[in-house]
Every structure is written in structure tokens, then in C-alpha cells.
Amino acid sequence: MLVIVAPGQGSQAPGFLAPWLELPGLPERLERLSEVAQSDLVAHGTTSDAPTIKDTAVAQPLIVGAGLVALSALLGVDRAAAPDREDDDGRADGRAASPVGATAGHSVGEITAAAFAGVLTEDEAVAFVRERGRGMAQASAVAPTGMSAVVGGDPEEVLAVLDSLGLTPANLNGAGQVVAAGTLEQLSALDGAPPARARVVPLQVAGAFHTRHMDPAVDRLARHVLDLAPQDPAVPLVSNADGTVVDDGEEVLRRLVRQVSNPVRWDLTMDTFLAMGVTGLIEIPPAGTLVGLAKRALRGVETLALKTPDDLDQARRMIEEHGGPQDAGPDAPPHPGQPEHQHPQEDTP
Predict the structure, then answer these.
(1) What pLDDT, on the 0 to 100 scale, is given for residue 333?
(2) Catalytic annotation on 210?
(3) Does residue 346 lie in a domain region?
(4) Distance CA 147, CA 211 (A)
(5) SS3 (DSSP) at 209
(6) How many CA atoms lie within 13 A of 67 on its CB side?
(7) What pTM value is reported for the model?
């Protein structure tokens, strides 16, 4: 069984899209998405410097746009989830067979995964991430905040140290990695006195994402989605809120709004991959971070970081070997439907 995953903010690097835009049709495709994003994604993916693409309002549409154009290069269609059946507005028809068994995204990457699964059209996804990026940039400007990865150490001790400093475990990534978020003063205290046997790595992001500091962005997104009509996923979509397989488009959209100020549980997402029987994992650009986690947490699963077009042949080989229409395994977390599945992180800042 094959899963395609999309990375989050901080995975981008200057020039990472340059080799992709040498492929026929991709520059034009990214230019069209740039119009929706109201941002020059072509320039930001090729010539913009690191400080420019660190800007939240720039980085988030860039990451989603990069994932979408890479998917089109990999699978050769706009809606790879269901290439031979689309409705009038370009969404995939979930009844068609897919070579991909499941999809998921880390933080902003979940928007890319939702578009891939047909919940949102590409234009809807890019417009959503445009508003998300702007809202989170504005929220980040209220007070100096940031994020740092804590790698290693005893998990319980790490969480206790974060709590003592007033920091939020914004990303529980598994494989011995927790991302702390809070004020720069709190993060400086963590860097000066890290948990035993752990190291602290500051991340290239501009704010304390997935915490209460992002509440204003949640309000902005809640207003933005009022006019959207999401479709049910054509490919099983694993939510990064709690690892649940979500089969209702409206619920996917609600979770996309809520995740801005709630923690990402990538550890639970990877647990679900194991329960589903995943044997192959492809991370789309800007790739590398999620494959690194998977290599440590998903032993025996073949992984590929799809970084440049040179990796396309290997990715297509993996699709052929691991892909095919699949149902979630019997041990996979259930689809939402009971009240306890609807707001898993509601009380977490």
C-alpha cells in the first residue's frame, strides 16, 4: 500500500523549485496558481532568498503550490486521485480507482493532501492557504514568537520541561522529535537548559504555529470557508490532528481551520500508516523532513523524498510496486462519526 505525504512550513529552501520548472507545462501551471495566491510562486521557488521565503505569507502558498505541480508531474493529471472521472468543477470522483492507498500532510501540507484527495479544487486550496498564510503572518506580528525542535530525550521529561517553561508541544512528530512553540524568551530558556539527552534546533518559521497565538488566523479562516462546498475525499485522508481516517469533506475542512491553533500529531498519523499496512511512502516537494521521520518510525516501509524530477522514475516504480486501489486495514482508526472524534484537540492551546 502506498501513501503520499506533503510536508509543512520550514521544509522550503531557496531555489528548490528550479529543476521542476524545467519540465514542460509546469511554469505555466505555477503561474496560474500564482494568480490565485496573489504571490509570485515562480520567483519565490527559484530566485527568492531564504529570508523572503521564510515569510509565512510567502512560504505557505509556495509549499502548497510546489506540491501540486509536483503531483501533476508525477501522476500526469490534475486530479490524480481519480484521473478518469471528474465532475464539472474539476474535482475527482472518489468512485474511480486510485493507485494511492492514502494521503496526509503535516501542518500546511494537509491542504495539499486535501486538494490531492479532491476535497478542494486546486484553486480553492491555494486561495485557502493564501488566507491562512496572511492570517498567521498577522498573528505572528502581534508578539515575537517562534518554534524549536527538541530531538531526543525522554518523551515525558521533554513534555514536562516544555510545560514548566510555558511552551506548547505544537508538533508531536514521533521518532524522538517534539516541536516546542511559544515566545522567543521561552524558547531561549529552552535552548539554555534543554531536557537531558536532548538537543534543541530552532526552526525557520516566523511564529508559534499551532498554539493559541494563532487564534486570530482561525477566525479569519472560519469566515473564508463559509462559501466553500468541499467534496468527500476520493483517497483515504489521514488527519494530522489525531491520526483518524476522515471520509467527510466538511469535517476535513473543519479540521483544516482548527489545526492552525492546535497541535499536529504526526506520531499518530504514522501509527495509522502502520495500521493500514503501508509499505511505501512518497514525500512530495519540498521533500525530506517527513521521510526522515518515517525512516526512524516506519521500519520496513520503503520511502522516497521526491526532491527533483530526477526522482520521478523511482517514484513511478514505487507506485507500480506498492500502489493499487486499497481499503484501510482492519486496525486503522475509524472514520469520524461519533462526537468524540469531532474535536480531538479542542482544549489544547
Answers:
(1) 52
(2) yes
(3) no
(4) 10
(5) coil
(6) 37
(7) 0.87
Q: Do residue 23 and residue 158 come from a single domain?
A: no
Q: Coil, strand, or helix at residue 218?
A: helix
Are residues 163 and 84 located together in one domain of the fold? Answer: no
- 107 assigned to active site: yes
Q: Going edge to edge, which strands form the sheet with 198-202?
A: 168-174, 177-183, 145-152, 198-202
Catalytic residue among 11, 39, 107, 140: 107
User: Mind listing the pLDDT tens digit for each residue in 17-50?
Assistant: 999 999 999 999 999 999 999 999 999 999 999 9
Ranges in the chain, pLDDT < 70: 77-97, 325-349
Q: What pLDDT does 92 receive? A: 43
pLDDT of residue 325: 53
∠ CA 161-162-164, nearest 5°, is: 65
Q: Please identify which of the residues 210, 239, 261, 322 carries the catalytic annotation.
A: 210
Query: In this structure, is residue 113 part of a structural domain?
Result: yes
User: Grid coordinates standing for 57?
Assistant: 505569507
Distance CA 78, CA 48 (A): 27
